[in-house]
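This part of the workshop introduces the protein records we will be handling. A record pairs a protein's sequence with a compact description of its fold. Comparing a sequence with its tokens is the quickest way to learn the format. The record below serves as our worked example for the rest of this section:
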Amino acid sequence: MKKILVIGSTGQIGSELTMKLRSVYQPGNVVAGYIPGAEPKGELAESGPKEVVDITNAQQIADVVRRYDIDAIYNLAALLSAVAERKPLLAWHIGIDGLINVLEVARENECSVFTPSSIGSFGPNAPKDGTPQDTIQQPRTIYGVTKVTGELLSNYYFMRYGVDTRSVRFPGLISYVTPPGGGTTDYAVDIYYSAVRGEKFRCPIKGGTFMDMMYMPDALRAAIEIMEANPDKLHHRNSFNIASMSFDPEIIYRSIKRYVPDFEMIYDIDELRQGIAESWPNSLDDTCARIEWGWKPEYNLDTMTRHMLEKLRIKFAQEDKQA
């Protein structure tokens, strides 16, 4: 049974992935790593071990890895795209200096490492539609630059030292569990929150701006499946395109309006996020992931919309009772 450390366990992906990993590998085998000020709460705190693990502190990582006999590290520490543009030096420090710390600890302790990349790793010069697995990557955001650098570093540690590094390029992720936190694709989460609350949605992204998106349950499954994949079949490692659905604001708005007929949306463009979105692919070709480790999404836009609306209604009703 694997023993896993999740760095960034209280973040947008980490909070859900940690719980999913505990359901697969038993709660006591999955350590929730967090930084002071972002402590785990509720079930995340109570269901398994937790430790302070700052990705910029290599000794802290090493101590936890050795104390718990960790053999797999999920490295989820990063600033989201729009936040990173406002804090580029911090984005590099966390994304790259931190990654080197993780890779060095993994090399010394024979751990496997998962570090997610992103659709933001491509940039405007890559093919926009059906972006291939292997193509030009010239991002114009610090977020994208750190993701490309992370892919290259992870590949280097695999080829040079034999560290078992693996990764996927996440599309925009949509979840009812964790509130949006400053990502370019977060409008596709905010819009559901507004619909369920009966609010008019002010969309920060222009109509006609397509981006790849994925429902969080599929993303969590992908993160686990790639780490369980037969290494002999992996021709690529860092990083696999994975895809599920591609839409623009008008398409997701119409999907929601089928179930919330009175829902309204207007445009209030955020030029920073719009610029980032326009530099990203419209859709990814995930053929390599499907062939090499059997990737296949389970949700499409309609099934995701119905599930999101149902879960958010339950969530808000529970919050109202507790208020």
The two ends are 41 Å apart (CA to CA). The mean pLDDT is 94. Residues 113 and 165 are 5 Å apart (CA to CA). The chain has twelve helices and 14 strands.
